[in-house]
Design a protein that fits this description.
minor pseudopilin epsh fold, elongated, four-stranded antiparallel beta sheet, single chain, alpha+beta
């Protein structure tokens, strides 16, 4: 006569525990937090892609290429947050202003018009210009804060003199990213 055991096997118990933990973690995280993280990731991916496109274009075209935020009239503006779009264009004279003879290489709608975004660069430039080697003489940082000002979702994209962008990190594990000098990011601006 076969023996029947009462209860669960260890495998069944671990599987049930894993499912229960997944349900509790998903239910415990507010939907707004997930949405905020995904919006931050989408916006930064967009900005990073444009930075890399501008840099690569300068190398491939063998000439200066600039990236800036533009208003409705396609004029570069200091206000990256409320700009209608971001534009990459050939800029042979390196002045950071698109002239009629300079080709637009890419123009994309602003990925985060409700968020606070600012570009801070050396020489107080409102644009970023890449040279033929993909480098730039005006390093700077793009600061991003979500619309609700949640500092845990604040990020920076910093571009070094070599033209390479890198994303901020939370090096001390407190849930807030730090800038390139090690100071916690702040959304009070």
């Amino acid at each position: 006569m076969p023996r029947h055991s009462e209860g669960l096997t260890l495998t069944e118990l671990l599987l049930a525990l894993a499912i229960a933990c997944t349900i509790m973690l998903t239910a415990g995280a507010p939907a707004g937090q997930w949405l905020g993280r995904s919006q931050t990731t989408a916006a930064l991916t967009h900005y990073l892609g444009l930075l890399q496109f501008a840099r690569t274009s300068a190398v491939l075209h063998g000439g200066r290429v600039s990236l800036c935020a533009v208003d409705a009239g396609e004029v570069c503006t200091n206000d990256w947050g409320s700009a209608s779009a971001l534009m990459v264009f050939e800029d042979p004279n390196g002045n950071g202003r698109r002239e009629a003879s300079e080709a637009i290489l890419r123009k994309q709608e602003n990925p985060s018009p409700q968020s606070r975004v600012r570009w801070r660069a050396s020489l107080a430039r409102r644009h970023l210009t890449f040279g033929v080697l993909g480098n730039t003489w005006q390093n700077g940082s793009l600061y991003y804060c979500p619309e609700n000002g949640d500092v845990r979702l604040a990020r920076t994209l910093t571009v070094n003199h070599g033209g390479r962008p890198y994303l901020s990190a939370d090096s001390d594990g407190d849930g807030i990213h730090e800038d390139r000098r090690g100071h916690p990011l702040d959304c009070s601006w």
